[in-house]
Design a protein that fits this description.
With 488 residues, this protein is α+β, with helices and mostly antiparallel strands. Helix content is 34%, strand content 25%. It has 16 helices and 18 strands. α2 (53-68) crosses α9 (267-287). The protein is globular and about 75 Å long.
Length: 488
């Protein structure tokens, strides 16, 4: 389900698991030549956790490797490989691959410029790659190999570039439209030399430190906004206004392997690895959430999207010109920039590649409570499978993956506690509900306090809910796919 943040207890479990995996091994296990000693096991690290688009790609890569090798090549994910408290978590994971503590990694391409790799900078030049369609074309073009070739300087070999999502400014309290809206503010942006230079050119102070973008700092007006994507906007620490037609860059993940590890693999294993990477790239291109769909979900959760004027866009481009001047001093980077510009002129952007402006939903007031609020007190449980979600009309791959599992609701005198448990996902939420006759209204704290009302009926410890009105298809499925069985 939609969440604002990952539960700390889940992050802690993942961090502990990641640490133990890293500590236990220091390179590929098994017989590299694929002999009788057993399958080859390679550990792949990421700074992300389950439920993120990069995690979906890693799981597909592991599936492809296992299937194509007949079970002889096992890819073992290490989630949040650098732990929760690393200041530069993407770069920390990159260094773990470089020094062999991890065999493979999925690292955002923007992160490599702090590690001495300059060949990927053109991909993140400000306001250049402004559509998923262009990013998709870049990662399959021959210039992708040229950009990945520079990874050799970091001791890793690029296997594939995996596009993820466009990055927009999300303003706290006010929209970020022109350079004057950035002036003097701290702006949350993932660590990279080019990203920091871009934000500095706009007049803001770039920061990758989570503790500097806390709710108190946002409320005090010290933090102007964050650089993120609609598909990741649930991680924002406060309601924000997105500028949908301002695209800093695109997030692309590099699938890399330690070069020494790669050189020690048997030729057949190398081929399986490269084929699995290519197949994963195709899978990502076919399955990633479109810009329009991600924006629609953001709006339905209470977010707001605005558009900058032509004058604002001109001012933004003018402000970052010094960044381009610096980039184009390098002949190789300038050549790549020109090739991307040429490709951009040929790319057609469909309606699915554009975010439509929307207004923020007014914050809901608590639902009225006119009935016996204890009549539904108890602990209820039900289970939903991906197949059942599909049958109810849910088609988005991420929605399917993140909303299956065992659901437990604890209702007590107008307050609920909600828990989800599934192999690849977990969630914990709390909020209010109100009973009025044979209707119950849930106030969903994780969807901008959205209120959803149902007609209820309970018989022989089975609670049945029927939607009263309209709501998102996914929410309807989660509440009504099965009766709730009272277990306590």
């Amino acid at each position: 389900m939609g969440k604002t943040t990952k539960p700390l207890r889940w992050l802690a479990i993942l961090a502990i698991a990641s640490g133990s995996l890293v500590a236990c091994t220091s390179g590929p296990s098994g017989n590299k030549a694929g002999g009788d000693a057993g399958p080859v096991t390679l550990r792949i690290g990421t700074a992300d956790y389950l439920g993120r688009p990069s995690a979906d790609a890693i799981q597909e890569f592991a599936r492809q490797a296992k299937t194509r090798s007949g079970g002889r090549l096992i890819i073992e994910p290490v989630w949040q490989a650098a732990g929760e408290n690393a200041d530069d978590w993407d770069q920390a994971v990159a260094r773990m691959v470089k020094d062999g503590r991890l065999d493979l990694g999925v690292i955002p391409t923007r992160a490599w410029d702090t590690e001495g790799v300059t060949s990927l900078r053109a991909l993140h030049a400000p306001f250049l790659v402004t559509s998923d369609a262009l990013a998709d074309q870049i990662v399959v073009a021959d210039l992708a190999d040229e950009m990945m070739a520079g990874l050799d300087k970091a001791g890793v070999t690029g296997l594939a570039l995996l596009p993820e999502s466009l990055r927009h400014p999300f303003g706290y309290g006010r929209a970020l439209l022109s350079p004057k809206d950035y002036a003097g503010k701290t702006f949350r942006t993932p660590r990279s030399e080019l990203g920091d230079a871009t934000i500095s050119a706009l007049g803001a102070k770039p920061s990758d430190a989570e503790d500097q973008v806390g709710v108190e700092a946002i409320q005090a007006g010290r933090v102007g906004g964050s650089d993120t994507a609609f598909v990741l906007a649930e991680s924002l620490q406060a309601p924000a206004i997105a500028t949908g037609n301002v695209t800093f860059t695109t997030k692309v993940n590099s699938l890399v392997i330690n070069s020494k590890v790669l050189s020690e693999l048997a030729p057949t294993t190398k081929r399986v690895l490269k084929d699995a990477a290519s197949a994963t790239q195709r899978w990502v291109l076919d399955h990633r959430v479109t810009e329009a769909e991600a924006a629609r979900v953001y709006c339905s959760g209470g977010g707001a999207i605005v558009a900058a004027s032509d004058a604002d866009l001109t001012a933004l481009v003018r402000a970052v010109q010094p960044v381009y001047d610096q980039l184009e001093r390098d002949a190789a980077t300038k050549r790549l920039l020109d090739r991307i510009r040429e490709l951009k002129r040929t790319v057609r952007v469909s309606a699915q590649g554009v975010a439509t402006p929307c207004q923020a939903r007014a914050r809901a007031t608590p639902p009225p409570a006119t009935g016996n609020q204890s009549i539904l007190n108890g602990v209820y449980r039900y289970e939903i499978t991906q197949q059942e979600l599909r049958g109810l009309g849910v088609t988005n791959p991420r929605d399917l993956a993140r909303n299956e599992g065992m659901f437990t609701w604890r209702l007590h005198d107008g307050r609920y506690i909600f828990d989800q448990a599934a192999p690849g996902e977990t969630d914990h939420q709390e909020g209010k509900y109100a009973i009025a006759g044979n209707r119950v209204t849930f106030q969903l704290s994780w969807v901008n306090d959205l209120q959803v009302t149902f007609t209820w009926k309970i018989s022989d410890k089975v609670l049945t809910l029927q939607l009263d009105g309209e709501t998102e298809l996914l929410l309807k499925a989660l509440f009504t796919a099965h009766p709730w069985t009272k277990i306590a």
